[in-house]
Write a structure and sequence with these properties.
9% strand; homodimer; alpha/beta; Rossmann fold
């Protein structure tokens, strides 16, 4: 979407100790297909802290229907993760002279992650403009989250309209060693329902 | 100061690609002498972004008097550094169940760093409470900066009163390979003036 607006894009991904590398491979593929100016994969070790099913030996829930996910913050919540990611992104933006940080967080569709809510993003943007030279010297940094209020179905339709091949992308929390999606974790269930609701054939490769 | 309040302290330092390791050695010494519960040194690679005299091949200014430092943001400013550090600290606090994050930032004494100002800390605390499970579920996280409005002389006097041996500590931006302070960078000049103003003998080991 940023590329479609004509923006010069610098992509930033995080190798943060998540359960698998397949999402980073997917990020590299997408960055290459879109044609970003630069793609940095920043290593940060959130396993040193733990506290999440994504960064510690806590089991990822499987087989829950989309309707069963709504209560509370999921075990896949990673403490302060999006705040850490956005802070790095603001640092990077400042160094390359970018005026916008764009993050793909999504508040709807049963997510339950506090750091995906618009009120957090707004508070973070305010803090970022007080923390940085870009903010103090007037240019400022804008934190945009164009997907935040869209449903998964709307996101999928929008992507398809922009020519995105979703076979390149990855959502599963617990893929097999080939990168095939488990089809049973919350992220798979939400993604699959998104394709159904959008009326778009699901190109995801699921494990047998 | 936190330890003197009777708090159980978890220390967190960052190996962020700074110019030297001596400040990390000093942090380890101080953590050990104080007797913290745990000291994590988190590796993060801010050199991947650059943009500062502390993380890129930009020269550290030398030989400026304390009075010459007041204008603008110094080249030793590291983009968004304190926001990144505090975000990690909030993640760590949440995992260990700590209710306070305490940072040693200092707004006075000619610093010019936007991310050392009280207005940033307040905005950050607000964002952190919206981003985290701790914030959402009511316990909350408080971000304290007990040194923020103190002069260097006051900080030194306070530390001496608590029995801190400042020979264990490190401030210099550009020490020699033995860790001896250069005596000429802004940080050395401010530190030296602090000891003078406090009327405390300066135990810093300066390079010949």
């Amino acid at each position: 979407m940023a590329h479609d607006e004509g923006l010069v894009c610098f992509a930033l991904s995080f190798d943060y100790g998540q359960r698998h590398r397949h999402e980073l491979d997917a990020a590299r593929r997408v960055a290459e297909v879109v044609g970003v100016e630069q793609h940095i994969v920043m290593p940060i070790d959130l396993r040193a802290f733990g506290g999440s099913a994504l960064t510690a030996d806590i089991e990822v829930p499987k087989g829950r229907g989309v309707g069963e996910m709504s209560a509370g913050i999921p075990v896949t919540y990673v403490p302060a993760r999006n705040m850490i990611f956005l802070s790095f992104a603001c640092a990077h933006a400042e160094v390359v002279g970018a005026r916008e940080v764009i993050a793909g967080v999504n508040a709807v569709d049963y997510s339950g992650y506090p750091d995906c809510r618009p009120e957090f993003i707004e508070a973070f943007e305010r803090a970022a403009n007080l923390a940085t030279k870009a903010g103090v010297e007037g240019r400022g940094v804008r934190v945009r989250t164009p997907l935040i209020r869209m449903t998964k179905a709307e996101i999928i339709r929008r992507g398809v309209g922009l020519g995105m091949d979703y076979a390149l992308t990855h959502s599963c929390y617990d893929p097999d060693e080939t990168g095939a999606a488990c089809g049973a974790c919350d992220s798979c269930a939400i993604r699959r329902r998104g394709f159904e609701d959008a009326g778009v054939p699901d190109p995801t490769r699921y494990a047998p």
